[in-house]
Amino acid sequence: MKLSWSLAWIRHADNFGYSHGVLPGTIGTVAVLLTAVVLGFALHRVDRIRRLRFAAPAAAIAFFTAGVLWLAGS
């Protein structure tokens, strides 16, 4: 199932807005994902945010979603 989804993503990459090709789109998505992970870990280290259990992961997910939508739109 995961393999077929990956193959479908590669086949239809232009439909997702990655008009520059699959490789630049994948590199951009991985870069946004790594930045979101670093953001989540950095926010988790702040004491005020650590008390709010799901604030850091929620901010990282929101950042990742916004980044991927921005990449797909450009």
In words, what does this structure look like?
Helices cover about 75% and strands about 0% of the residues. The chain is mainly α and about 70 residues long. The chain has one domain (about 1-74). Helix 2 (about 20-45) packs antiparallel against helix 4. It is elongated and about 45 Å long. The two termini are about 30 Å apart. About 5% of the residues are buried.
The gist of it:
The protein is an all-alpha fold and 74 residues long. Helix content is 77%, strand content 0%. The protein has one domain (2-73).
What is the strand and helix layout of this fold?
Layout: H1 2-11, H2 22-44, H3 47-51, H4 55-73
Flag low-confidence runs. none
User: How many individual domains?
Assistant: 1
N- to C-terminal distance: 29 Å
Helix content: over 70%
Radius of gyration: 15 Å
Largest sheet: none
Shape: elongated
List keywords for this structure.
74 residues; mainly alpha
